[in-house]
Amino acid sequence: MEISALQKARYAYQPKLPANIAGAISDIAVELGKPTDSVADQAALKELFNHTYGKPLAVFAKGKGDADKKELTVGVILSGGQAPGGHNVIAGLYDGLKKGNPASRLYGFLGGPSGLIENKTMVFSDKFIDEYRNTGGFDIIGSGRTKIETPEQFAASLETAKKLNLNAVVVIGGDDSNTNAALLAEYFLEKGSAIQVIGCPKTIDGDLKNEHIETSFGFDTACKTYSELIGNIERDANSAKKYWHFVKLMGRAASHIALECALQTQPNICLISEEVQEKKISLNQVVEQICSSVIKRAENKENFGVVLIPEGLVEFIPEMKKLIDELNDAMGLKGAEFVELSSFIDQLYWLSHEISEDSYKFLQTLPPEIARELLMDRDPHGNVQVSRIETEKLLIGMVEKRLAKLKAEGVYKGKFSGLGHFFGYEGRCAFPSNFDADYCYSLGFGAFLLIALGLTGYLSSVKNLVAPASEWVAGGVPLTMMMNMEQRHGSKKPVIRKALVELDGGPFKAFDAVRDTWAVKTSFLFPGAIQYYGPPEVCDQPTKTLKLEHQ
Question: Which GO MF terms does the UniProt record name (predicted)?
Fold first, then answer.
């Protein structure tokens, strides 16, 4: 297989481990704290997780353990969307197992959770794992979005684990995947099985975090990748001086990526979905905010700029959310009728009788191509596929229309030309930054220790991430501690709570203090490409979000 020069060089990189797990395996023990509670809905969750609720926090410490004496057989799953560093989680898990006992084995379940259900596996070897160290992607075993949720799927998962004589299953995924891990841990114990389940926190969206999980892996690399591209666009905009670039960024439920990229690149506008929701900002108000910046910059002869838009923005705009909810309800009840309609005009007429008058009027104000996207792109449950709505084009069109009116009134005298971009898949499989390479390897190694020291129902954790890697502290957080009950598909379900951007948090406050200046004055920052070799202040720094959260 032909490989690039960087890939070859990255194979040789040795990830750094926290001091509390870097020594001899025989000298690592686990310290357990007091029993824990879930973040909400304690009574309901205690009933659902009768065997795993209330477990204590775990921290690895110097002491006599027996992690080096056990011959273990473990299976690992990559679940959900890709995130930089996943290969290093598996490498850390593999190295831990082999360091503990060279006879230990690691199975990879192919294609995500379905590999566990259907017993599709491969066995890792030194040669194979070495070809993936410190590289991006999930192609080592592939990922998938299958959820283990039916009685048959749970039973098949346990049957597979027994056939392979597994001691444990490691689930590498986001909030939904690790909710699945918690349910799997509970199910195994309920059925009298000692097979352990451990999770690892993955998502580039950055919304799987709390006081004990400081960040999810992949967020650092993805944001640095997007910020390089945004910086390049800013430089181009400042060179050509004739385009406004509207950049949509991944992050459907939370705006962490948009906010971090704004802190790294200092665009003219960055929209934060959580603020839009909190302040009930309408679509027209969003447009007015952008137009205000365009007009003021035009007065300075700067007919260019950059706007960052979180992927899920439309779901947070009150009138758009109302429209989407009503469309989902109408399609859910009468979807068969709707699909029989052959033209856009017929669809609009049908909807005039199925949704509220306000929502129908709002739908008619949208650019036709956006309205078509709302009506045509449905997921398997009949819901609007919000991530496929071209919000950047929606805003460009509405800003263009508003500015034309203001120009006719003599308020605006500049020139506006908008260009749309969507940065999403470009960041999910990038070569992991040194931070993510170290963090992910530590999470995988920590997962091995949680298994070897007899724990189940835990998420591997590494804390103190703003310090050098040697000062990080590895341990484990009970999965049930992060859960609450939420309405999903008509009934209450246990889920790990998503962490949204906090408007009173350090990162947003830092952004809020300077955004009015950025809106008018060109203040662009150009972070450049991720650096792997050089001084720590260039190569090993965590995100600005992480630093500001721990000031």
Answer: 6-phosphofructokinase activity; ATP binding; diphosphate-fructose-6-phosphate 1-phosphotransferase activity; metal ion binding
